[in-house]
């Protein structure tokens, strides 16, 4: 008899990213702990084979952007879980970051939360003859992200075939994100300029681990003793 197909480990939960394989396994390991701490897991990505880098992207559960102090807490918690569960052979590096403003849309609830904003999506397989889409996010339904394209056509993009999706930075998105800043950044002590500065600081890519000390740590499996 021929060998059976290996089932993919695929996370399809409104509160979890859409992931497969090792990324999904690590997401399942760390998401409950982050939830207990008041954070949402946005994305997990394991990059590289020798001495891999584990990238963790998170938000606060109330939807506001996380700060450096939050990255430190998440780094300690996730690092401890990876040490115990041991999903990675050899040494590894952990990077923790905020999702930022022009964030990836990795969960069904992201598509619901950012309905009305402009986004781009790329599929693994062609949908209606194309792999790349850009338009207004309409929400999520039955395992699909809904989008209205520039020509007015509405499409349903299956999460199971979605390679990546991300918000497009617009003035409307920046304004909406400024309203979602943490209370400390939007309190009466800070004026509009300070709130906008906080939103601007969340735009762009996260520095690599060696330049982002508070959100990065390294781990290594102990050497195995020979029998």
From TrEMBL:
Q: Where does the Ribosome maturation factor RimP N-terminal domain start and stop, copy by copy?
A: 29-102
Note down the stretches annotated as region Disordered.
181-227
The record's subcellular location field reads:
Cytoplasm
Signal sequence, start to end: none
Q: Which UniProt keywords apply?
A: Cytoplasm, Ribosome biogenesis
Q: Where is the Ribosome maturation factor RimP C-terminal domain?
A: 105-170
Q: Where is the composition biased (Basic residues)?
A: 214-227
- Which GO CC terms are listed, alphabetically? cytosol
Sorted alphabetically, the Gene Ontology BP terms of this entry are: ribosomal small subunit assembly; translation
Question: A Pfam family matched by this chain, by name?
Answer: RimP_N
Q: Which domain of life is it from?
A: Bacteria
Q: Does the keyword Cytoplasm belong to this entry?
A: yes
Q: Which NCBIfam families match?
A: PRK00092.2-5
Free-text function comment from the UniProt entry: Required for maturation of 30S ribosomal subunits.
Q: Which PANTHER family match?
A: RIBOSOME MATURATION FACTOR RIMP
- Could you say which protein family the record assigns here? Belongs to the RimP family.
Protein name, entry field:
Ribosome maturation factor RimP
Tell me the organism. Answer: Komagataeibacter rhaeticus
Q: Which gene encodes it?
A: rimP
């Amino acid at each position: 008899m021929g060998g059976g197909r290996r089932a993919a480990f695929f996370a399809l939960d409104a509160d979890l990213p859409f992931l497969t394989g090792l990324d999904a396994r690590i997401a399942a390991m760390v998401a409950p702990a982050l939830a207990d701490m008041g954070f949402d897991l946005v994305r997990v990505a394991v990059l590289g084979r020798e001495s891999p880098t584990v990238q963790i992207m998170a938000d606060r559960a109330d939807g506001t952007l996380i700060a450096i102090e939050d990255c430190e807490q998440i780094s300690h918690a996730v690092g401890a879980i990876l040490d115990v569960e041991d999903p990675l052979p050899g040494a590894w590096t952990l990077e923790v970051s905020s999702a930022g403003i022009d964030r990836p849309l990795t969960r069904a609830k992201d598509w619901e939360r950012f309905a009305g904003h402009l986004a781009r999506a790329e599929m693994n397989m062609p949908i209606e003859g194309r792999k790349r889409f850009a338009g207004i996010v309409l929400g999520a339904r039955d395992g699909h992200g809904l989008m209205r394209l520039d020509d007015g056509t509405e499409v349903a993009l299956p999460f199971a075939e979605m390679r990546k999706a991300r918000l497009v930075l617009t003035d409307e998105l920046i304004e909406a994100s400024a309203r979602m800043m943490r209370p400390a950044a939007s309190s009466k002590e800070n004026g509009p300029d300070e709130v906008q500065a906080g939103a601007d600081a969340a735009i762009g890519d996260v520095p690599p681990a060696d330049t982002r000390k508070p959100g990065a740590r390294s781990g290594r499996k102990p050497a195995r003793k020979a029998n």
